[in-house]
Write a structure and sequence with these properties.
By secondary structure, the chain is mostly helical. It has one domain (2-167): Tetratricopeptide repeat domain (Serine Threonine Protein Phosphatase 5, Tetratricopeptide repeat, Alpha Horseshoe). It is 71% helix and 0% strand. The chain contains nine helices and no strands. The protein has helices at 2-8, 19-31, 36-49, 54-66, 70-88, 94-99, 110-128, 132-145, 153-167. Helix 3 runs antiparallel to helix 4 (54-66) and helix 7 (110-128) runs antiparallel to helix 8 (132-145).
Length: 168
Amino acid sequence: MARAAIFEERVLFSPNLPEAVNKLLQAAVAASHADKPLAEKLFKQAQESDRACLQTYFALYKFYFYQGRLLEAEREVIAALEQSAHQGGFPSDYRRLVRELDQWDMYAGDIPLFYLYSLKALAFIKLRREQEVEARVILSLMQELDPEDRCGASVIMSLADALLEDAA
C-alpha cells in the first residue's frame, strides 16, 4: 500500500511537509497542466492552511513564474523572503542583511538557504521583467550572502551577462 502512495505523488516536496498541505500541493501540481484556475486555487489553499510552510510559497511562485505571471510570482517571492526571514530571525531586506552579515550564518540550515534560493528567484524574475539594474544589484549582494554559491545564483549572473552581450 505504501509503495502505491509513493508513486501517486507527482512532486517530492520537503519530507517534513504536513500531510494535508502535501495533498493540496500534489493536487495543484496535477491540475496545473489541465486546469490552471483550479491549480491556483489549490496552491493558495495549501498556503492559507499553513502560512509557515515555506514550500507553499515556493510552489506558488514557481506556478506563477511558469505561467508568465511575473508580477504575481514576484509578490510570492517577496512573501517567501519575509516568511523565511521571520522564521530564521534575520532581516528580510537583503540590503540590510548584507550590511549586518557578520551577525548571520546563511548556511545555518534550511531556512536561510530557502531565503537565498528565493532571493535568486527574485533576481531571475527581475531579469525577466527587464529590470536588469535591480537584478544585478540582487545578484551582486548574493555574492556576499552566498559566497559558496550554494543556491546557484552564478547561473543567473551568467544569463544576465549573456543578455547584456546580446544587447550590445
